[in-house]
């Protein structure tokens, strides 16, 4: 049996004060195991992004606890949270979010730089990862010189750079054409087959169907769909 | 990009100001030191307080009293003294071109005269010649302003009825403390013959060993004060102590110059801060991304601090280069103003010390002024930042 990489206990996220309080996420309990492939679906504003921000340690829950690889992240300070983000989590955004002034190689190296990896190892690893996403010929291209699909594949390489336990992808195919989208999903699924935990937020039911588990969020409540 | 260039220019100008003003100050320091240290074996004994009122001025005494022959004899008896000479002070009636006026007269040995006025510009003519009689040197004011008609070299002035030839005219005095403009200078012998007096206003002596100068000066002061029964009748001043005083004054001047230049640097550092704050705003999204992929607050801070440091240190280096040229230009302008007064012209001196200082200061300015923007960047919440468009 695979171990739990993410466990949430009664987490909720609220905005505003009592009479005007808004629940973005209500009393959510999740157990996500190593190697899981999870799709998160739901209408806009349902709380998908809130959940992703909490799981990615970009935000803290209002109540409840989150354990990532056994660490209770609600007790961690800013520096330790940065370390969790760096070592345990790889982010993929809908809008790629590459650094516009850096080329593909440098973008992939960046998070390894924050982790303190020496520059030789960094470059070697970044080249391997870009090869994995089939971008060996785009090493020195700036994001503005690449197509959306290519940029997103650079972002995938960047997310994998520090060997995270979890990949959090927020609508990774939302801004690319269907062929590139298919390519991106195939790469993510390959990574998943190698044991990586993948959580994908999507509007696309076809993509959601391919996941092993589907979580539907509605008005801040998370329900497991049985497929 | 152009914003960073302008910021860089601000720093460059600030550093340029510091470098060129420091070079100027150092040049002044060295010029004065060089001039005075050739006279380091000299002691000047004057009556009353500060000797600056009499040195180079022509022997005005503050308390109206003079040294006696006994004082001079006592000094000559001390050990380690090479040569003693005196400067006599008095006044006489001078007549030229039909106008008569009272002038103050100074008599001194010709050898001493050459030494004491060595740094003074001559407008025309030369120093008195040893053995010649009835020759005088006059100040610029006497030659041009005192009488109705200007006096030139070879001109004849009657002093107390006696005819004197003008052998030399001093140039117009610059900013120097006491003026030589009203000087009428003659040999001691002529002075005594003319006035029948020997009012010694100043005793001028040289010692064998420069290292003894201070102790000899002290014992001279004691001896003469004893002779006159007053505690502070005489002041014996060594060139070394004058040198120190002058150096202190120039040091203060240098400090003031640098302080003024620093204002430019403060303005420049505000410029850096402004640029960095704008840059932080523009890169909000980038900061969020970096935090999301694992940058700590410290990582973010150091990115901006390094950037600020880079801008300011490049600006500093450009400023040093500009400062080298700036100091040349500045001294050229100053020299053209002072060329009437002083024989020695200024040369700017850029010391390694001032270069090191400039580089250090510019780096410190860079770090300090990017601290606040960097802290603002680090404090950003990653979700807010990533959402920011």
Explain this structure:
The complex is a heterodimer of chains A (227) and B (389). Chain A has 227 residues and is α/β, with parallel strands linked by helices. Chain A has helices at residues 48-55, 78-87, 104-114, 119-132, 148-160, 178-193, 205-210, and strands spanning 4-15, 22-33, 37-41, 63-68, 71-72, 89-92, 166-170, 197-201, 213-218, 221-225. Chain A has one domain (36-60, 77-225): Rossmann fold (3-Layer(aba) Sandwich), CATH 3.40.50. Helices cover 34% and strands 27% of the residues of chain A. In chain A, 47% of the residues are buried. Chain B is α+β, with helices and mostly antiparallel strands. Chain B folds into two domains: 2-34 and 255-387, no CATH class; 42-208, no CATH class. Chain B has helices spanning 2-37, 69-77, 110-116, 140-146, 188-195, 213-228, 239-282, 284-292, 297-338, 352-379, 382-387; strands spanning 42-47, 81-96, 99-108, 122-125, 135-138, 156-159, 162-170, 184-187, 200-207, 234-238. Chain B is elongated and about 100 Å long. The A-B interface holds A 53, 56, 58-59, 78-79, 82-83, 85-87, 90-91, 93, 97-100, 110-111, 114-115, 158-159, 162 and B 285-286, 289-299, 381-383, 386.
Q: Structural class from helices and strands of chain B?
A: alpha+beta
What fold name stands as the CATH topology of chain A?
Rossmann fold
What is the C-alpha radius of gyration of chain A, as a whole number of Å? 17 Å
Shape of chain A: globular
What is the end-to-end distance of chain B?
21 Å
**Helix tally of chain B?**
11
Query: How much of the residues of chain A is beta strand, in percent?
Result: 25-35%
Query: Widest sheet of chain A: strand order?
Result: 6-7-8-3-9-10
The DSSP helix count of chain A reads: 7
Uncertain stretches of 5 or more adjacent residues of chain A: none
Structural class of chain A: alpha/beta
| Helix content class of chain A | 25-40%
The number of E-state strands of chain B comes to 10
Provide the CATH architecture of chain A. Answer: 3-Layer(aba) Sandwich
The CATH C-level name of chain A is Alpha Beta
Query: In sequence order, what are the helices and strands of chain A, one letter per element?
Result: EEEHEEHEHHHEHEHEE
Number of strands of chain A: 10
Biggest sheet of chain A, open or closed, and with what strands and sense?
6 strands, mixed
